[in-house]
Each structure stands twice: as C-alpha cells, then as structure tokens.
Amino acid sequence: MNRAIPPIVSIAMACALPWMALAQDARPGPSFHEAVGMAWAIDPVRTELQVGHHSARARASAAGSWFAGGPTLSGEYMDDHMLGSNEGYTTYQGGVSVPLWLPGQGSATKQVASAEAASIDEQLNVEHMALSIRVLDAAAAALIARTRMDVAHALYDATARMAGNATHAVHGGELASVDGQMAQAAMENAHNELALAQEEAQNATTALEVLLGRPVVPDLSRYGGGDVTQARFVSPRDMEDNDPRIKVAHRNVEAAEANMKLARRSFMPNPEIGVDAIHEKQYGSPWDDRVGVNFSIPLPSEVRNTPIMSEARNRLATATSQETQARRMVHLEMMRVRERLIAATTARQATRSAAENMEKRAQAQERAWRVGEASVDTALAARQAAANTRLASARAEVEWHVASIRMLIATGVVP
C-alpha cells in the first residue's frame, strides 16, 4: 500500500533541489586577477577609450604636417560672349594655395593631441580600477548571498529535525500541541528564509555573470592581510600620487595648458600662399600666358580671438579645479579604505568567536529540550541566534577579504 509523503519530507525535497543546483556552481572559482581579466576583455568602456586613444594619436601625427591644412584650388573663366561683341577675348585662370602654420602653432597643436592621448591612457587605468572594484563588489555580494543560503539551509535542517521530533512527541502525548505548532511554525519560517536566500544568491550570481561573461564566482579567500603588508606603497601620499584618478586629472591639466598655448599661437587666421597661372586669348595681344604668386593674410580681430582665449581659460580653470577635487576625494577614500580594513579585521575576530559559542549554546539547548530540561521556544530561539551569528561571522570573513583586496587596489595592485 502506497503511503503519502510526510509534509516535512516534501518541503525538504523542494528546498534541496535548487540548493543543490547552486551548490554545484559553488566549487572553487578563478582568482580575482583572472576574474578582472575576464571582465576587462568584454568591457565596452575599454573599447571606447581605446578608439579615442588611437584618434588622439592620429591627430598628433597629423599635426606634424608641413602645412596647417589641405591645399585650396581656384579657377576662373571669362570671355566676351555675354557682351555680344564676340571679339574672342577669353581668359583662363587657375591657382593652388596652402595654409601656413603661425609661429609655434604646429608644435602647440601636436602637444595638445599628445596630452589628450596621454589623458586617455590614464582614463583606461581609471576604468580598469573601477571595473576591478565592481567585480570585487559583485563577487562579495555573490559569496555573501551563497553563505546566507548555506546558513538558511542549515537552519532549516535543524528546525525540520526539531519539528519532526516535536510531532512525534505530540503524537505520543509527551508534548503539548502548542509546542508542536511552535516547532512547525519555526520550520516554515526557516523554509521561507531559505527561499529568499536562494533568490538572492541566484540574482547575485547572475549580476556577476554579466560582468565576467561566465557563470563563475572568483575565490576571494586566498587574499588576506599578509598581501597588504607586501604592497608597493605604504605612505598615503605615495598611494594618492599613484592613483589613476589623480593621474588623469593631472593629465587633463597638462592638456588644458597645452590648449592655452595653442590659443595664444592662433592669434589670427592662418595665412595662405600659392601660385596662379593665366592663359589669355585676346585680339592683337602680344602675350597669352602668365604665372604669379598669390597670398592671403587675414588680420587679427578681437571678435575672433576673445572667444578662443576665453574658452581656453575656462578649460584650464575647470581642469585645475577637478585635479584639486580629485586629490581631496582620493585622500578621503584612502582613509576610509584603511579604516574599513581595521574594522573588518576586528569584526572578523569577534564574530568568529561569537559564532562558535552560539553554536555550542544552540546544541546544548536542543539537548536540554529533548530531555525535558528546556522549553521548545528556548531551543528554537537559541538555534535562530546561532544561525544569525554564523551568518554575521561568514559575512565578516568575506568583508575582511574584500577590505584586503580593496587596500591592494588602492595601492595600484590587482591581486
């Protein structure tokens, strides 16, 4: 005769299947350095910045030309047909001219393009650093979510075991029905927590997969405090000067200064010089061909020069202000990173000890409940407190590794 599956067993099977699927993906993943490399290979901002870098280098190369622009062709044709005389007076005239660099304008143009290319180089480093932090945060979120799922699964197993024992004791008349209902409610709450933890773990893993392009979670546990002591820069000033955000801000100031120099060199439109040739067909004329030189020199004008100089001054003032703000921001962030590592180290040590003690207390309370020396609500509360402390300890462990890696990133190292 077929027997119905008890509700506790069916719920356990329903919870175990998705947990086992995620547990298969929890095997040791790549290193953090490898994970950043995966994300960098598919980062769209990297491609955009590389295109901008090549464009700036091309502008710098083009600025080395002999002339300030391309040649200009001109031509004229005149005859006397429209006048009605039709005496055969016809003139063909053509010329070619090229714009000339003003004194120092060509080298200044090349310096601006080179400075912009150097700025984009540093922007690539800034993007790499920002991407490393995004990968670190996403990996930490995935690991904490999986830890929450593991703790929730352990709590569910414990409450399901206690609920089964309570149900058996109620049927045997050894326990009040209200205590059995309390144990059953605790198991249902644990089941709900497990479902929420599974959802969070799946979402966090998916978000990380979008960054890396692969369904993997990097292993952060191999990085710790010993790596920080071996960092290349220990002085806060050295760390700030090595930060790519300050470097790119300084490069922008250099580009703005080069642009100011270019604006001063471009005090008037570029003059043009060229050659003209004339071929004429005139009645009784002793000549028919002439060759000469043409030139065009636009004169300086405040109407043209004032906006150019104002824009250059504004660009330099903006770049200087942004460099100062970048230094302040990076200095504040360095202090926060250091304090976060100190706090994470303390929390890791404290929560690890607390988790061990609370687990021992939960086991003792459950044994006491089984022999009738403690109430079921006391045992359930102890088990819930042990689960909360274990989750806090696991979270503190992950955050300590994250703080260590974040400190290494601040020193310019991607471990």
TrEMBL record:
Subcellular location: Cell outer membrane
Keyword hit for Transferase: no
GO function terms (MF aspect): efflux transmembrane transporter activity; porin activity
Coiled coil: 180-214
Chief location: membrane
Keywords: Cell outer membrane, Coiled coil, Membrane, Signal, Transmembrane, Transmembrane beta strand, Transport
GO cellular component, one term: cell outer membrane
UniProt xrefs under Pfam families: OEP
InterPro entries: OMP_efflux, TolC-like
Signal peptide: 1-23
Family statement drawn from the similarity comment of this UniProt entry: Belongs to the outer membrane factor (OMF) (TC 1.B.17) family.
Protein name according to UniProt: TolC family protein
Organism: Novacetimonas pomaceti
